[in-house]
Write a structure and sequence with these properties.
Largest sheet: 5 strands, parallel
Shape: globular
Distance between the termini: 13 Å
Structural class: alpha/beta
Order of helices and strands: HEHEHHEHEHEHEHEHEHH
Helix content: 40-55%
CATH superfamily: Phosphoenolpyruvate-binding domains
Radius of gyration: 19 Å
Strand order of the largest sheet: 2-3-4-5-6
Number of helices: 11
CATH topology: TIM Barrel
Number of strands: 8
Length: 279
């Protein structure tokens, strides 16, 4: 099994391989196991999906200890790198952020998403403050000789402070430059992700870029052609699975047979995706 430092280096290299890194975000260990079994080189979690699976809304509504427990289980279920969405970092102060960084690394995680919203849809943190927060994670990881891959989320497209797309774009480009200098490895201007926006971001940002793959985004082959480095799905795969569950339970009371179940994965197939026992 590769060391944590080796996993981190492998994850970082996937951002500059010339091939789009596709991350179908998961929220539990079996999701990670499926991705590994299917040949995906890395795993990413989605905060909204993980929180919702536990019965909570997104926005750091679960305890940090709960998040760390989930991340430990996910990272321990696979041998490939795992990057975690830790929202704003579960800390108001730099010492609290350093503690989050230490616990994330203890969990076996080798990459993070770190967002710059104060409250999603409203004001963003000041650039200098967010740079200090990014640097805190970089410093803690460096002390362990692990290159934690920091995916710095830029929320200008979500902020009411930038109602026009062009303003949000320019703010994203400005923040990208500062965040990279502070230690970010990849920039995640979360937003529409359409072809025009993706091309404009690529023209203004020299560092690796993460695009949210959503129904509004450019198709994956187009993102690859543009030179986007990473595409993640956020909560959309979780929501697709949830939609299927809702469909099944809605049909169940009036069902004359069990055709609504479709073709389930067999028990043997499920067992093939999970570890045989504790290690």
């Amino acid at each position: 099994m590769p060391s944590q430092a080796q996993k981190a280096a492998a994850l970082l290299a996937l951002h500059t391989s010339g091939k789009l890194l596709i991350l179908p975000n998961i929220w539990n260990p079996i999701g990670a196991c499926v991705l590994q079994a299917k040949g995906y080189p890395a795993v990413a979690t989605a905060s909204a999906a993980l929180s919702a699976s536990l019965g909570y809304p997104d926005g750091e509504k679960i305890q940090r200890s709960t998040l760390i427990d989930c991340l430990t289980r996910i990272a321990g279920s696979v041998d490939i790198p795992v990057t975690a969405d830790i929202e704003g970092g579960y800390g108001r102060t730099i010492p609290e952020l350093r503690e989050t960084a230490a616990q994330v690394l203890d969990a076996g995680i080798v990459g993070i998403n770190l967002e710059d919203s104060l409250v999603e849809g409203h004001a963003l943190r000041k650039i200098e403050e967010q740079c200090q927060r990014i640097a805190a994670f970089r410093e803690v990881a460096a002390r362990r000789d692990i290159h934690l891959v920091i995916n710095a989320r830029v929320d200008s497209f979500l902020s009411a402070d930038f109602p026009e797309k062009q303003g949000a774009l320019e703010e994203a480009a400005t923040r990208a430059k500062h965040y990279t200098a502070a230690g970010a490895d990849c920039l995640y201007p979360i937003g529409p992700g359409d072809e025009a926006v993706a091309r404009a971001l690529r023209a203004r940002i020299s560092a690796p870029i993460n695009i949210l793959a959503s129904p509004a985004a450019a198709p994956l082959p187009v993102l690859q052609a543009i030179g986007i480095n990473r595409a993640s799905f956020g909560p959309f795969i979780f929501r697709s699975c949830l939609a299927r569950f809702v469909e099944i339970v809605d049909r169940l009371p009036s069902a004359a047979d069990y055709d609504f179940l479709g073709t389930p994965v067999s028990g043997a197939d499920v067992r093939a995706f999970v570890r045989s026992g504790p290690e």
